[in-house]
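=== Structure Prediction Worksheet ===
Name of assembly: unnamed complex
Input type: mixed (protein and possibly other molecules)
Chain count: two
Listed entries:
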Amino acid sequence: MNQNIASHPELFSVEGLVGVVFLILIAITLTGGIIACNSNRVVRAVAGLIVCFVGVAGLYFFLNSPFISMMQILIYVGAIAVTIAFAVMLAAPEEKKKFGPTGPLEGPFAFATAALLAGGFSLLALNTDWPVRQKINDGSVEEIGIRLLTEHSMVFELISIVLLIAILGALVIARREE
Amino acid sequence: MRLTLFNVVAAVIIAIAFAAVNAAYLVWAERRGAARIQRRPGPNINGPFGLLQPPLDGIKLMAKQLTIPGGADKVLFIAAPVLAMFPAIMSFVTIPFSENIVAKNMNVGVLMIFAFAALGSTSLLFAGWSSRNKYAMMASIRAVSQTVAYEIPMLITTITVVMIAGSMDLMEIVHQQSGSFLHWNIFPLLGKSHNILMPLSFLIFFTCTLAETNRSPFDLGEAESELVAGFHTEYGSMGFGLFFMAEYANIVIGSCMTTILFLGGWGCPFGLFPGVWWFILKLYLLIATFIWIRWTFPRTTIYGLLNLSWKILIPLSLFNLLLTAGLLKVF
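=== Predicted Assembly ===
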């Protein structure tokens, strides 16, 4: 597989198709991100966010981890994006986007920050010696479950505490309004 | 089998065609079924038994004008029906119809189908919001709150089955139920878990499928007497057609999942004529039940609907999950 990718495969073969799909996924992710940042309407921004999530899920799938990819769609699109869209539709009336700088970080500063970040990341990407790794494990659910509860149990527990705090916070806020 | 470009394209075309043909002919089946229950003939003029009705309906729908209401969000308005159909077709990729008939068997097949089912609810939201119509908006909010509520017991019941099978691979889940028809997950005592509550699990799953596909008696999102037509009020032409087809494609996927998870997939009783037709038979019997329920049960209220999920189905499915875990540990 790796050799085929390294030695430019023909476009009209399965490997070529896979390459095209990879490029399409990158395009989807970038387009979604740009829509999410630049749209005038909040709901459209949420739609852009969903497109971006789906693109990222496709990239995970491409990287041989279907479990993470499906979880990305199930959690980020199915739960988080729907919740955001729901909240936006229930709460905010239509708002005109304010034009012109709204804070001290907009304008030239924002441009400088963006340029710095872009340059930094490009340098990092170009100067890193990317090792081509063989598969670490089969990426199956069992393997992930075992690793999560043995090697990474600390992280697992921390995440549960964060979620518990979030639920408690939501309860506190909901109670205050009564 | 060697993976060639031809195979890939053929698999894609077959998946799309299967979804589309099923959707078109289930509309016909639904109309005939409704007519039978209401003691009238139904569409029977075009072709034998009215079988030419669906293509003619398709031509009629495509010939109509797609009107976009003033002030609607055009991009989202047009994208929503496409977004409704896309996950429905994607889910067919991983469903195994028999030992050999499966486009791509994945070791997270169950997860994939639920992930794409979750994508479907976003299309309802965008359809309702972008048509700038308060009834459409209300309908989509109802439909999504219902989908979110019923997704939980459905997933918990699925986890029960996944625990019994020890795999998220749909093929593996069917294999685990093979041998005798008494090993099917719906039958309580001879299965791997010996869990007496498995028929109840099946009922919960089937109820959730009804609710997830927005079918009667849970079609609060399409209550004509309250909401004009539901989230697709403003859609005409093939936009409406796509929503309709997506609904039926979702019914097929729900029935496929019920067949695979509880009815032993393509497994057959007493080894009679093993083959894909057993899967097809179970699938269409379930779909017939869907249609039968739709035309014989009245619609519930929105509170009744949400209470059923949060107060009855979720506790019951959680209890069954714990019981199954315990039984699996014991046996």
